[in-house]
Write a structure and sequence with these properties.
CATH architecture of the largest domain: 2-Layer Sandwich
Shape: globular
Number of domains: 2
Number of helices: 15
Distance between the termini: 54 Å
Order of helices and strands: EEEHHEEHHHHHEHEEHHEEHHHHHE
Number of strands: 11
Length: about 425
């Protein structure tokens, strides 16, 4: 039986709607200040995409009382970073506990007093555009996710990636568009603030009230999304200057809180987690059809994706390689997973979870993540949900999810 230490936390909602979560850890001299905003690429206008990611950069451009964000934090012995995805944007600072007020002052100031002007926009627009070109236009297979998302999603804004649908959307972004996005989503009642580390709940709450309590809230409304069930297979073939033919097969799956989420996650690990996994052993090592192959889930808040992705070995027939993937899928559908294989997979997942939670930063990020899902207690319950998955559930999931009519196959081929 698997056991781990429960993560302690307390939750307070300020009068302005800011959700504050405290996690005490007296074994460290540091604190993490993690601020998650419930805004991601899915909240963008389809004709003005890439703004959520643009703000990940703009938020470091300085604010009313701090011309530079990084310098005061570094002088306080801290470090910071941020990341964006389709569902939310997350910013974190790690500082010595005695300097926590530096981080709080910086975060409170940029929550509503960000320095957005033509100069800051021009600088960060250039950075983001270069990133788009380097990683998505000039990189081999760089536009694969643009293509794949458009195949899988017909209505939901998951149909474009976080970087944006088109480079021109950022190139042509106007100052008023950017200011409007900020004023719409960067509000205390659209944020989750976590303070984790060597500071008491009482002291931290006093500081939070002091720095954030006077910020006025503005009502934030989020769009409601729909996505039709897929009933017909999609295929797309492109030829590019890439080293090897690549195959992507994607299926819609449940959202992050769906009952099949843990079944899907374990299924992906059985298929491709490590060199002893099914796809690596049979399609890379034995059949030598692929030089690498993976199966993974997107873990999206809304409708997710289960993806098979592989680079086909030189001179190997692409369609034969695809057929081999389907044969492995059929085995998952026809025969229950042996108990020892299932338990081995569970042990890997739970060990990784335990290792991840040894990091104070990871705990702070996780607390904010589960809160934005609306299920904060999941941070202490997910291990039991993984443990409860049965081999029969995996077999049913594979039968229901991996059907030809629900498949989206992208053939990303080497230019002849």
């Amino acid at each position: 039986m698997y056991f781990r230490t429960m993560i302690n936390f307390s939750k307070t909602v300020l009068d302005n709607g800011l959700t504050y979560i405290h996690h005490h850890d007296e074994t460290t001299p540091f604190v993490v200040v993690n601020t998650l905003y419930k805004v991601g690429a899915k909240d963008e206008d389809e004709h003005r995409t890439g703004f959520a990611h643009l703000f990940e950069h703009l938020m470091f451009s300085g604010s009313k009382h701090f011309k530079d964000f990084d310098k005061p934090l570094q002088e306080a012995g801290g470090e910071n970073n941020a990341f964006t995805n389709n569902d939310y944007t997350n910013y974190y600072d790690v500082v010595p506990a005695i300097n926590i007020e530096t981080a709080l002052a910086l975060e409170a100031d940029r929550m509503t007093l960000l320095n957005i002007n033509k100069k800051s926009l021009d600088v960060q627009r250039k950075v983001v555009c270069e990133e788009f070109k380097e990683n998505y236009i000039n990189q081999p297979y760089g536009n694969a996710w643009h293509l794949l998302r458009e195949m899988v999603y017909k209505q939901h804004p998951y149909k474009w990636p976080t970087i944006g649908k088109d480079l021109s959307h950022i190139e042509e972004a106007q100052l008023d568009d950017v200011k409007n996005f900020y004023q719409t989503y960067y509000q205390p009642n659209n944020a989750v603030l976590v303070v984790a580390g060597n500071i008491s709940q009482e002291k931290s709450l006093t500081l939070i009230e002091n720095y954030f309590g006077s910020i006025e809230k503005i009502n934030v409304s989020h769009k409601q999304f729909v996505e039709s069930e897929q009933t017909q297979a999609n295929e797309k073939t492109i030829e590019e200057d890439v080293p090897l033919d690549a195959i992507y097969i994607a299926f819609k799956m449940c959202d992050r809180l769906g009952k099949d989420y843990y079944v899907a996650d374990i299924t992906s690990d059985i298929l491709s987690n490590g060199t002893s996994s099914r796809l690596h052993q049979r399609l890379v090592k034995e059949a030598k059809a692929f030089v690498e192959i993976d199966a993974y889930i997107t873990a999206s808040n809304d409708i997710g994706m289960f993806v098979f992705e592989g680079k086909v070995a030189e001179q190997y027939d692409v369609q034969t390689a695809v057929d081999l993937i389907w044969k492995e899928i059929e085995k998952m559908q026809e025969m229950a997973i042996p108990e020892n294989e299932l338990q081995k997979c569970k042990n890997k997942i739970l060990t990784y979870q335990n290792f991840s939670e040894s990091s104070l930063l990871n705990r702070a990020i996780s607390l904010a993540y589960y809160e934005q899902l609306g299920k904060l207690n999941l941070i202490n319950e997910e291990d039991k949900k993984y443990e409860a998955v049965q081999a029969s559930e995996i077999q049913v999931f594979c039968k229901q999810t991996f059907t030809k009519q629900r498949s989206n196959t992208l053939y990303y081929l080497k230019k002849k």
